[in-house]
Structure formats: C-alpha cells, structure tokens
Amino acid sequence: MTTTFTKATALKLMLGLLAAEVLSAFELSMLYAALRFMITDFGSAEAVGWVMTSFFLASAVSAAICGRLGDIFGRKKVLLIVIFFSIIGSLIAAFSSTLEGVILGRVIQGTAGAIFPLCIGLVRENVKPESAPLFIGILAASLTVTMGLGTFLGGIIVDNYSWHGVFFAGALAGIVAFIAIFFWMPQSASTPFDRRTNILGGVLFAPAVVLLLLWITKAPSWGWTSTNTLLCLVAGLFFMTVWVSTELRAKVPLLDVRLLANRQVLLVNLGSAVLGLTSFQSMQVWSIVLQQPTATGVGLGVTATLAGLILLPKTLIALASGPTAGWLITRYSGRVSMVLGATIMMLGWIILGLKHDSLIFLTLMLTFLGFGMSMFYSSIPIIISQVVPMERTSEANGMMLVIRSTAMGIGAQIVAYTLDTSTIDLAGASYPDQTAVYRVIGYVIGGCLLMILISSFVSKERAKGPVSAHAMPVAPVIPSTTVTGK
C-alpha cells in the first residue's frame, strides 16, 4: 500500500523514521562511553559486560520476531509498542542502583532491535517504489552516523553527569520518537492473522539465537572448551536445527526460512555476513592502532578522545554514501552499488596496509573506507525490500540483522585472536605488532574480495515494483524424519 505524499508529508514521514532510528542507535552506542564508570561502581568488568550482552541478545530476537509481528499486525502499531518498551527499559536502568536492575532495563531496551526492520517496512508501505531506495539509503546512513555521534554524546554526558544520565537521555530520545511516529506516521496496514501460523517457530527461534550469540560473546571469558561454552554451542545448534526443520514443514511459518531460497536474498545476506566478519571490525582495529604507544612500532599514541574524533568522519560520510547507494540502485542496479562499495573498501584497506603512520592520512583513508562500507551496507536492505513480498519486508530485514550481528560477533573474536598472534611487550603490557596488524589487514582484504565476488552475482536488473508473495521461490517442504504417533 503506497500513498502519494506532498513534500511536507514526505518530510514528516522521514523525520519520524529518523527519530526512531536515532533512538535505535543511541540505545547501543551511548553506553560505550559509560562502561568504564560502571565498572568502577560495580567492581567487575565481566559482570558489567552483561549490560552489553543482554542488550545484544534481546535485540537479535526482537529484530526478527517483532519485525514479523509488524508485518502481521501493523508496523506503526508494533513500532510504537517497541519504542514504549524501550522507554520503560531506559527508565528502569536509569533509576537502578544495582547491576541486576540495569541488566533488566537493558533487556527491555533490547526491543529497540526491531526499530530498523520496522522502519524499512514502513518506507516500503508508504513510499512509491521508485523513491523507496533513496529513503532506505538515508535510514541506513542515519543508523551509521548516529552510532558514531552516540558514543561522542555519551562521553559528554558521563563526563558532566553520571552513567545514569545516558539512560535518561535514551528515555528522552524514546519519548521524542514516540511522539513523532504517533503524529506523523500514517496508520499502517495489517495482515489478517492466519490461525495456521506456526507460533512454535518464534518460540524455538529465540533460544537458538540467544544461545549461539551467548557462545560467541562469552567464550573468550569462559574459555572456548569450558562446559558452559560447549553447552551453549550444542544447545544453540540443536534449537536452530529444530527451528529450521519446523518452519520448513509449516504451511504458514512465523519466520519464513524459505525467504533464503530467493537467490537475491541469499546473496545479500551472504554479503552482509562477510561484511560483519571482516570490514565491520575496522573500529576495533584502528582504535587499537591509534591509541597504542608509538614505541610498539605500529601505534600512534593518541588519546581515546582524539581517536574518537579521527574515527568520526568515517561514520559521518554515511550521510553521503547511503543516499548514493539508493540512487545507484534506482538508476542502475543493486549489483553496481554493492560491487562499487566493496571495491572502495578493498582499496581503502590496501592503501592503509601500505601506510598508516600519519594521523591526517589515516583520517582521510578511513573516511574513504567508510564511504565504501556504508554504500555496501546501505544497499542490502534496499535490495531485500525490492525482492521480498510486501508482507514479509520487516521480517526479512530483521533476519538480515540477526545474521549480520552473529557474523560481527564471530568476526570480533577472529580479529582479536589474529591481533594476539604476534605481539610486543612494553612496560609490562602486550601489544599487537606490525606483523599482527598486517595479518588482520590481509584477512579483511580477502573478505572484500569475497564481497566483490558475491556482489557480482546479484541481479543487474532493478525491481519494477512490489513483489507478490506468489512470485517468491518456495523451498520444498522437508518431510519429518521423526516418528510421530498416529
């Protein structure tokens, strides 16, 4: 259902969606600046780590399940509910004096993980097909930019108030987003609920994702061969296998695994996974290089504040690259945008591998790299939204976020391990040396090559309009291998 808008109405629609996106990004990024203060207050870095882990777990589940509920019951309605719970979670964490209270608030805040896929669905529902890529490109870019600004603003808040202020700011952002969506967003359509819908699919999906993400995020502190780590891995794989099998057999799945049978959906999700495994780790790599001592032979010895300012243009450039991706897909195709973005990323990493000992040069090249990364990332939800049925838009983009988040978790561990393969000791501390940095750069360049290869198989045709559910290729129903009673 698309509506013809005046420029004023279109502006209100975009501002409402951007307000929701700002909330989504701030819920995550602002807290980074507060972690060291929370460690001081609560006395344990590992315990405080659950403040982030709990949010990631809740976000991953919410992105897929609430995204699908929005497709069924109306995206505006579900988005308002998600924002309401996010506000409640922020206030619980803000008023808590115990770590358990903060973690509870963060779990409730995690419902914000559904905001991005719901916003993508609302764009497709309300904007003409030829304009949707530009809108989605702006939304994807805003997510990147506000992530960078959120960390910066979070630092200002904790320096002048306390870590509680970060959560109050999150609640305020939520209130603004709720009002903007309530008054400026047209009422969204709902799909009649089919009683045959496989609710068990949603029930099984949640523990599968939670256990696998828990395995990824906690294995370094628990130990890769510890009982807890192995139990999370085995149980997570078990639930994932049962979930996939159940959804494939269902006549009306809650979360349709068959969407991956669409070649374009599969390809862009593979590209998103490789991005998460490799180039999305750039903040981790270059933050270390910027801040570690110059005596190590690879560090530039700057403060954390200066390092943040140097990395900021890399995120701000998304304001240009996101809409550029939308324009390229509208004018040419998703293949052009993704191949170009991956190529720019690869060139950026190659050049940084050759020279990374100058702050000015590093800032310029990280901005160049960020342009390509945001272009590639912004292309993915646009392409997904062009090829999946209208009634599955938010679900498909939510699943993409789950896949990418999982890949990012694995990638962070790979990069951390690689940086630790060759180190230099200085003043009682161990730092990655030049060899380790070269290994990481080589690993990421290999990922960029793989992204170029994957992108070259993306369709060079652009979608002409909404896709019918009947136009989607459907995977064959897999018969059950278990024996059931008659």
Account of the 3D structure:
With 486 residues, the chain is mainly α. It folds into two domains: 8-196 and 251-255, MFS general substrate transporter like domains (Growth Hormone, Chain: A, Up-down Bundle); 259-461, MFS general substrate transporter like domains (Growth Hormone, Chain: A). The protein has 18 helices and four strands. The protein has helices at residues 7-29, 35-42, 45-73, 75-95, 99-109, 115-126, 132-160, 163-184, 199-222, 227-249, 263-277, 282-291, 304-316, 318-331, 334-354, 359-387, 393-419, 434-455, and strands at 197-198, 252-253, 423-426, 429-432. The strands form two sheets. It has a two-stranded parallel sheet. A hairpin with a 2-residue loop joins strand 3 and strand 4. The longest helix has 29 residues, at 45-73.
Short note summarizing the structure:
With 486 residues, the chain is mainly α.
CATH superfamily heading of the largest domain? MFS general substrate transporter like domains
The CATH topology assignment of the largest domain is: Growth Hormone, Chain: A
Number of domains: 2
Beta-strand residue fraction: under 5%
Q: Which residues sit in consecutive blocks of at least 5 with pLDDT less than 50?
A: 465-486
What structural class results from the helix and strand content? mainly alpha
- CATH-derived architecture of the largest domain: Up-down Bundle
The run of helices and strands is HHHHHHHHEHHEHHHHHHHEEH
Number of E-type strands: 4
* Top-tier CATH class of the largest domain: Mainly Alpha
Helical amount among residues, as a percent range?
A: over 70%
> Which strands sit side by side, in order, in the main sheet?
1-2
In round numbers, the mean pLDDT is: 83
Shape: globular
Number of helices: 18
